[in-house]
């Protein structure tokens, strides 16, 4: 199966602690997926810093143009996640319809969508249109309703702020709880007179946290306002804090770095070994993290019986350390390049005769062509059999073209291999040096780390004795290497 990879990042970009995966990572994930299924990558298209709403993305336009003109040579379009390709109902529907018309498949790794079979292709447009429509309708309806409530000065979100209550059914106007309102006033007054949040929390016996106090002090509802979707409205409810006190407190509050929103963005841990780690029981080990986000690990997909896991930072650093070590071990590089040389020599031994065979085939086709051309010249071809001979001739010419192309390609591969045979050790040394330099300059950049790993490591297998067997992309039978012992429960 021949794949076209499509990747996109939004105008906000893709620093690793943001919510987006970089184009490089998206492509690599797709490549891994394709590799695991024995497919080939025909091309990659990407749109960096474009919104999914924007239909004039150059990569997407190229993709659509290929489909329109019927010149697409790939079988299946693959994306890291569905929203990389399409967000709006109309645009999405059009793309999927064109894929279907051109009998092209579609795969999205994250959502586990595989529409590369004929049935899947037929389903694709229906499902997409349905799902998008539903989602847009719901989101749009909810937002609309909430904004109209806020505009009226009523409270649109479910849980009212502390010291406020919702009115009777269907009444969204906030009501003051007088007893709790005294607590709010007390907290505002204490803060205004320079009492530390920690001491305020102590006074209330820890029933409200330091962060809870800060959130309360920032909440404009206490000054009679309704804030929704970044906009401020005059509320219908009674204010608990007078304007002067509220403003005084605002001036004292520490600046927030994320535009007033108090909850920090959750950071996504970049699992640079995803798709590479195997458990001793034969299954994959997949990325996982604790709910608190404090512990990241790779876990066996058999969570009932096997339950094996390993700390992500521990194994990642061990693997990168190994790549670094290779660089400093010339004898290891020699062993690897000797094995590569052996494999390439074998390939050449098998394929050089193929070139000769192809050559003979071309000579034979040429003889046939000459015969027909002579028949034309000598007048043996007349108006009755002209069509027959013409058809035969064009078939032979087509065959000659195909054989020549195959021969040309094989010759290219062979001659490349022959040159490489002498340069592998240099190349490998250079590659390792490049990656290790990049890692030294950028030790925490997940893209650099992932690239270095993918360039050198084919798979990582856990053994029963809690060690990990590292299979290099160029591993030799004797080139086995062991990672340091990593206990499953170590952090
Ligand atoms: Zn397992």
What does this structure look like?
This protein is an alpha/beta fold. Among the domains are: 2-144, Rossmann fold (3-Layer(aba) Sandwich); 164-252, Hect, E3 ligase catalytic domain fold. The protein is 51% helix and 14% strand. It has 13 helices and 16 strands. The protein has helices at 23-36, 58-69, 82-85, 89-101, 118-151, 178-192, 197-203, 210-218, 243-252, 312-327, 330-377, 386-441, 446-456; strands at 2-9, 40-48, 76-79, 105-108, 113-114, 164-166, 174-176, 225-228, 231-234, 277-278, 285-289, 296-300, 309-311, 457-462, 468-472, 481-482. Strand 15 and strand 16 (481-482) form a beta hairpin. It is elongated and about 110 Å long. The protein starts with a strand and ends in a 9-residue tail after the last strand. Zinc ion is lined by residues 279, 281, 283, 300, 302, 306, 308.
């Amino acid at each position: 199966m021949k794949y076209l990879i499509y990747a996109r990042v939004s105008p906000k970009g893709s620093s690793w602690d943001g919510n987006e995966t970089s184009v490089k990572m998206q492509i690599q994930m797709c490549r891994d997926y394709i590799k695991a299924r024995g497919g080939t990558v025909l091309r990659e298209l990407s749109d960096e810093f474009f919104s999914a709403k924007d239909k004039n993305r150059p990569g997407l336009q190229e993709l659509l143009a290929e489909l329109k003109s019927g010149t697409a040579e790939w079988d299946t379009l693959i994306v890291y996640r569905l929203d990389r390709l399409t967000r709006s109902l109309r645009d999405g529907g059009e793309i999927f319809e064109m894929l279907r018309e051109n009998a092209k498949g579609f795969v999205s790794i994250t959502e586990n969508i595989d529409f590369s079979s004929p049935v899947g292709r037929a389903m694709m447009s229906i499902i997409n249109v349905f799902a998008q429509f539903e989602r847009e309708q719901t989101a749009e309806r909810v937002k609309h309703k909430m904004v109209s409530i806020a505009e009226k000065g009523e409270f649109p979100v479910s849980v009212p702020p502390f010291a406020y209550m919702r009115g009777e059914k269907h009444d969204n106007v906030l009501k003051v709880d007088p007893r709790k309102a005294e607590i709010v006033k007390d907290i505002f007054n204490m803060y205004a007179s320079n009492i530390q949040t920690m001491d305020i929390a102590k006074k209330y016996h820890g029933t409200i946290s330091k962060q809870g106090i800060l959130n309360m002090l920032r909440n404009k509802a206490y000054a009679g306002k309704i804030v929704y979707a970044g906009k401020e409205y005059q509320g219908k409810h009674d204010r608990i804090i007078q304007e002067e006190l509220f403003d005084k407190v605002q001036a004292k509050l520490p600046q927030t770095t994320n535009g007033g929103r108090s909850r920090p963005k959750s950071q996504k841990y970049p699992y640079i070994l995803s798709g590479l780690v195997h458990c001793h029981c034969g299954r994959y080990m997949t990325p996982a993290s604790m709910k608190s986000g404090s512990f990241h690990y790779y876990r066996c997909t058999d969570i009932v019986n096997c339950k094996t896991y390993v700390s992500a930072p521990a194994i990642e650093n061990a693997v990168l350390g190994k790549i670094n070590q290779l660089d400093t071990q010339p004898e290891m590089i020699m062993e690897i390049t000797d094995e590569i040389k052996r494999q390439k020599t074998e390939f050449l031994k098998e394929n050089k005769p193929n070139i000769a065979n192809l050559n003979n085939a071309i000579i034979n086709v040429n003889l046939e062509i000459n015969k027909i051309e002579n028949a034309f010249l000598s007048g043996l071809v007349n108006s009755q059999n002209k069509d027959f001979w013409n058809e035969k001739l064009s078939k032979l010419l087509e065959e000659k073209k195909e054989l020549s192309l195959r021969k040309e390609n094989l010759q290219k591969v062979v001659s490349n291999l022959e040159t490489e045979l002498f340069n592998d050790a240099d190349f490998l040394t250079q590659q390792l040096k490049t990656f290790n330099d990049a890692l030294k300059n950028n030790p925490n950049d997940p893209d650099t780390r992932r690239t270095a790993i993918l360039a050198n490591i084919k798979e990582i297998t856990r053994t029963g004795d809690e060690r990990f067997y590292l299979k290099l992309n160029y591993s030799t039978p004797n080139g086995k290497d062991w990672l340091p012992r990593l206990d499953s429960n170590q952090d």
